[in-house]
Specification:
With 255 residues, this protein is α/β, with parallel strands linked by helices. The protein contains 9 helices and 5 strands.
């Protein structure tokens, strides 16, 4: 049941598995790891007497997932992530009643306020900052407390480095408030082995939060901006509307 609900929600959002949905973020990896799912008093008594078996982790995870999906569908708002242009198109609809018009105008005003707020935030993208060893302290270590810095350590001629650099450059277009930089690996760390490149270092307030070594940390050579966004959102340095980890479609070729 939860699969059909989630599928219907994706269709209404024009998305597919691993794409953005205008809905609450669901931490799938956390399912089944928290407190026990709520049960009735009668069920608890039957389990204490051994009449009913204890729920398995899989059962608890499924119940939690159904509850989260129900909540997501119930709270789904098709206007939540519309921009000003999309809201203007909706407002041009002659079939709107006064209540719908007031609601859309309120969303439009909120979007304009958000845009004004974003203009006041420091922006570093789109694009990647290329830094040398002499710039590391100023650009990374001494970055303001509220600025996240993501540094790619790369080596020349590495195809894997090119893949991750391209993904970061694409991500910088939608996440300009995160400083994304590229540095030659041996400039950052003397004698850093090429075999560990690409390496991505995530900083905030001069402290390293996370390091990713190699493309295996993402999606291998199929890594794209969405894969990087998912992992960086898990670190907590950026927001995301991805509802679950991006999935790759694999095609079996018969030779």
């Amino acid at each position: 049941a939860w699969r059909s609900k989630l599928s219907g929600l994706r269709e209404r959002s024009g998305g597919a598995r691993g794409t953005r949905l205008p809905a609450t973020y669901i931490p799938m990896a956390a399912l089944g790891t928290g407190a026990k799912h709520e049960t009735t008093e009668w069920e608890d008594i039957l389990r204490q007497k051994g009449i009913l078996p204890e729920k398995t982790t899989e059962q608890l995870a499924r119940e939690q997932l159904e509850e989260i999906v129900d909540c997501t569908v119930l709270n789904f708002d098709p206007n939540e992530h519309k921009d000003v242009e999309q809201l203007d198109r909706d407002l041009d609809d002659d079939g709107l009643d006064s209540d719908d018009e007031r609601m859309l105008l309120a969303y439009r005003e909120r979007r304009i306020e958000e845009l004004r707020g974003n203009l006041r935030r420091p922006q570093f993208g789109p694009g990647l900052l290329h830094i040398a060893a002499s710039q590391w302290k100023d650009e990374v270590t001494n970055a303001p407390e509220d600025v996240a810095v993501v540094v790619l350590l790369r080596t020349e001629g590495s195809e894997d480095c090119k893949i991750l650099e391209a993904a970061m450059r694409k991500l910088s277009e939608s996440q300009p408030w995160v400083k994304m930089a590229v540095c030659k690996s041996t400039d950052a760390i003397r004698n850093y082995p090429d075999s560990k490149c690409p390496t991505m270092l995530v900083y905030r307030g001069g402290k390293i939060l996370k390091q990713f070594v190699g493309l295996k940390s993402f999606a291998g050579r199929r890594t794209d901006a969405a894969d990087v966004e998912w992992e960086l959102a898990r670190v907590g340095i950026m927001e995301t509307n991805l509802i679950d980890k991006p999935q790759k479609d694999f095609t079996l070729q018969v030779v």
